[in-house]
Specification:
Blueprint (H helix, E strand, L loop, with lengths): L1 H4 L12 H15 L17 H13 L4
Length: 66
């Protein structure tokens, strides 16, 4: 289950670096679960878009975490 869930770090694809994608994904997941109030990452990180955030939500649902 954890290996499949780790796919969240790749939702940013090639439009952003691994740090932006990974950090953004973890913050988005925490936000979707209600653990943090704001998923915004600090500059110079590139933010995830709405579609990428929805994909993270789907991965969380599939893992039984939403």
């Amino acid at each position: 289950r954890l290996v499949r869930l780790f796919e969240i770090v790749r939702v940013g694809g090639s439009r952003m670096g691994g740090s932006s994608s990974g950090l953004g994904a973890f913050k988005a997941a925490l936000h979707l679960r209600g653990i943090i109030d704001c998923p915004v990452t600090a500059l110079p990180q590139i933010p995830l878009d709405d579609d990428e955030t929805r994909r993270i939500g789907k991965l969380l649902e599939d893992a039984g975490l939403l």
